[in-house]
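Quick one: structure for this chain?
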Amino acid sequence: MNKVMLIGNVGKEPEVKYVDAGLCVASVSLATTERGYKLKDGTEVPERTEWHDVVLWRGLAEVVEKYVHKGDKLFIEGQIHSRTYEDRNGIRRHVTEIWAESLELLSPKAKSEEQENV
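Got it. Here's what it folds into:
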């Protein structure tokens, strides 16, 4: 089974583009953080942040385009996808991405958005 669940914060504004006759695709950089802690012997284990490249398609990408911004907290469920490609300099690159199957916005609405909806 290939299943990933992440709760994290968006690190930069999402990148959204339309390809192949209007198909919407969004890319989000998501940071997940494990809190630091102290062991019984006094050793401190520092906080650790991992960055995840998340790809969203179709309706999910359209939701990202309208509502997701840098700093927002998201819950993502999806699958891990790996691929290789050659960059502009001919160097072979390996990328691991999370292809989202569901998205939940966890950040509270901004006051300006709440006022618009009243």
